[in-house]
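Page 47, continued from p. 46.
Same chain as before, 265 aa.
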Amino acid sequence: MKKPGYLRNWEGLARTDPLWSVCTCPDRKNGKWDREEFFETGRKEWERIVRYLSEQHIDLPRSGAALDFGCGVGRLSRAMAGTFSIVTGLDASAGMIHLARKYHAGEKSPVRFVYHDRPGLSLFGDHTFDFILALLVLQHIPVEEGLHYLGELGRVLKPGGILLLQVPVADCRRRTVFQRIRSVLRIRQRLALAGIGKGYGMDMHLYSPDAVEAVLSGRDTGVIHRVHTNHTEPGYAGDFRVISPEQAGDYLSVMMVGRKEKEGG
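Result:
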C-alpha cells in the first residue's frame, strides 16, 4: 500500500536532515546540529515541562509505562527515561526509527523504539500506558487522521493516566498573495516526492481545540489544563514557555493536559 504523501515526505527528511526536521533552528539546517547538543534540548525541554506541570499541581506518574507518540529520533524519549519504568518511542517513519535505534544503541535505558505506519494504534491493547506525550507531531498529520489518532491515544491510556499534547490552532503569518499561492502548491515538496530535488517540507495542520476535547471526551479523558505555548515558533529548540496569543509568531499553539477517568469513578 502506497504511503500518504506526508509520510513519504518525512522519510525524505529522515534521509536528508533528520535532526533539523525536529528542531528547526535556521543555523542548524543541512546537518549542522551537533548530536549531543540536539539531545540536550530534549532533556531541558522535558525538565521545563515537568516543572511547569508541577507548578500547576499536575503530578506525572513517577513510574509505569510511557508512550512518546511521534518520537522522531528519540529526542524526548531519551529524556523521559529518567521518569518512567519503560518508554516506548513510536513513529510512522522507518528512517526516523532506524536513526533512533542507532543513536541509542548500547545505552542502558528503558527506552524501546517501534515503527508503526498503519492507521490507528492496533499494536497496543486498551489501557497500556500511564503517560502519553504527543508534542510537535499532530501538527504534521492531516486533521481527520490526527483526530482518529487522538481517539486511539485515549484508548491506550490507562484509567487515571495523563496525556500531554500540543496542536497549532491558528495561522498568524502575514503573507503576500504569491506566498499564499506557493504555500498551497508546495512546489519544491511535490517535486521532491516525485524524485526531483530535495525540497522536502513540513505541512502544518490547524486543529480545533473543541474538536480535540470532544474526541478525548469520547474516550473518558477530560482536558484538565490548556495553555498557549511557543512550540510552533520559528526555530523552536526545546525552550518551552507559556505565551499569550499576542506573542505568537507564525502559528498559535495550544498545549493540553488530559486525564482519563479512573474506573468506577
